[in-house]
Design brief:
seven-stranded parallel beta sheet; 385 residues; alpha/beta; 2 domains; Rossmann fold; 17 helices; globular
C-alpha cells in the first residue's frame, strides 16, 4: 500500500484551501496530514479523522501568532519528517511546498498561489504594514524569495487553481502546471425570489481586495452596500457614507441569505481564483468584477455579470450606473447553471483523472474509482506537466 502525506500550510479555519484538502482526504482516506500549526476547534470532522502532525511552531504559540512567524516557516517545514511516504501532496498558498521528501518519492503541489506578500503584492503589503512588520519583511523577503524559487525545484508536478496562478508559477518559478479549478459546494446555495435591495462585498478584508473602491463608489452614488468580513479598518469605515453597512463576520446561513438577496456582488480586487463570486452566482446573482485575475475564468461578461477595466472608483461608478440600467437582463437560473460547472464533484473527478496519469505513479485502480465512473481525459490531463 502506497503511503501518502498531505501537507497544508496551516490549519486554523475552513476556507477554500481547506476544502481542497478535504477532497484529497476523500481520495486518500488513510493519508496523514502535516501542517505548520493547527487549531483543531476550527476544523471539519473530515479533516479531524486524519492523523494531523504539526511543526515546532505549534509549541511556540503558532496557533495564534503564525502570521508573525514567516521567517521561521522554512525551518519548520524542512524539519517535518516525510521519509516514510511514497507520495506527498502539498497544498500551497504559503511555503508548504518547501518540505523535503525521499529522492524516490513523488511530490505533487496544488498551488493556490505563490506567496503574494513576497512577490507581486509585496509593495501593497509594505504600504499597509506597520513599522515593525515592514522592517521585518524588508529584511527577510529577499532570502524568502530565493528559498521559494529553490523549493519549487523540489516539486515533481504542479497543479494550479487557475490560469492566472499558472502564469504566476511560470513567471516566478519557471515551471509548467496543469489547471484544475477548486471545488465550490453549489448545493449550499439557492435562488431566492425576495427583493434585491443592496450590493454586496464579502470575504476577509485585506488590502489587495480593494474593498475601498466599492465603498467609495456606492457612497458616491448613494447606493446601499453591505460589507461582510473581518478586517475593516477605521480608515475604510471613514470612507463610507450612510448607505454602507459593515457587518463583520456572519454565520454560514446568514451568508447564504445575503448572497441570495443582493443585487450583485462587487468584486474590485485581483484574486487568484475566487470562490465567493461562484457562490454568489450559485445563488443566481450577478458579479461586477475588475477584469483581471481569476474573475476572468469564472464571470461571463453580460451573462453572469459584467466587468470594469480600470481599478478605480470612477470605473466602478460607471459600471454600477450601467448595471442599474440593465440589471433586468441577467437571468438567475442561467447564472446558477454556469456556476454548477465548478461544483465539487467535477473537482474530485478531474483530480482522480490527473493522479491516475502521473507517469511515476501506478494509481489508476486506487484513485480512479470504478470503471463506470471513467470519462475520457483531455489532452491537458494526459500531460500533467
Amino acid at each position: 500500500m502506497m503511503r501518502v502525506a498531505l501537507v497544508h500550510y496551516w490549519l486554523v479555519g475552513m476556507r477554500g484551501g481547506e476544502r481542497v484538502l478535504e477532497t484529497f482526504c476523500d481520495i486518500f482516506p488513510q493519508a496523514d496530514i502535516f501542517t505548520l500549526v493547527v487549531d483543531r476547534s476550527k476544523l471539519s470532522e473530515k479533516l479531524l479523522r486524519h492523523d494531523i502532525k504539526t511543526s515546532f511552531l505549534q509549541k511556540l504559540g503558532g496557533r495564534k501568532h503564525y502570521q508573525k512567524m514567516l521567517p521561521l516557516m522554512p525551518f519548520a517545514l524542512e524539519s517535518l519528517d516525510l521519509t516514510g511516504y511514497d507520495l506527498v501532496i502539498s497544498s500551497e498558498a504559503g511555503p508548504a511546498k518547501g518540505i523535503i521528501t525521499r529522492p524516490d518519492a513523488v511530490h505533487i503541489c496544488y498551488c493556490h498561489s505563490p506567496m503574494r506578500y513576497i512577490w507581486d503584492l509585496y509593495p501593497q503589503y509594505m504600504a499597509e504594514a506597520g513599522f515593525l512588520a515592514r522592517s521585518m519583511l524588508a529584511l527577510t523577503a529577499p532570502a524568502l524569495r530565493q528559498w521559494d524559487v529553490t523549493t519549487a525545484h523540489r516539486v515533481d508536478h504542479f497543479i494550479t487553481n487557475s490560469d492566472y496562478v499558472a502564469k504566476r508559477v511560470k513567471k516566478f518559478y519557471r515551471r509548467e502546471s496543469t489547471v484544475i479549478h477548486p471545488p465550490v459546494n453549489i448545493s449550499r446555495f439557492q435562488i431566492s425570489p425576495g427583493p434585491k435591495d443592496y450590493y454586496l462585498c464579502a470575504g476577509q478584508i485585506t488590502p489587495y481586495k480593494r474593498i475601498e473602491l466599492a465603498v467609495e463608489a456606492c457612497t458616491r452614488l448613494s447606493l446601499p452596500l453591505v460589507v461582510i468580513g473581518d478586517g475593516a479598518t477605521e480608515k475604510l469605515k471613514r470612507l463610507a457614507g450612510p448607505t454602507v453597512r459593515f457587518l463583520g463576520s456572519v454565520s454560514d446561513v446568514e451568508m447564504e441569505n445575503y448572497f441570495a438577496g443582493c443585487r450583485a456582488l462587487l468584486y474590485p480586487g485581483v484574486e487568484d481564483f475566487g470562490i465567493v463570486p461562484l457562490e454568489v452566482m450559485a445563488s443566481g446573482r450577478p458579479v461586477i468584477a475588475f477584469a483581471r485575475g481569476g474573475a476572468l475564468e469564472t464571470v461571463v461578461d453580460k451573462v453572469t455579470g459584467m466587468f470594469f477595466h480600470e481599478q478605480t472608483v470612477e470605473a466602478l461608478v460607471a459600471a454600477l450606473e450601467e448595471f442599474e440600467k440593465s440589471c433586468a437582463q441577467f437571468r438567475p437560473f442561467e447564472i446558477r447553471a454556469h456556476a454548477m460547472k465548478f461544483d465539487s464533484g467535477r473537482f474530485e473527478k478531474e483530480l482522480r483523472q490527473y493522479l491516475a496519469h502521473v507517469p511515476e505513479l501506478s494509481l489508476s485502480a486506487e484513485v480512479s474509482g470504478h470503471e463506470d465512473r471513467q470519462v475520457p481525459t483531455t489532452k491537458k490531463e494526459q500531460h500533467p506537466v
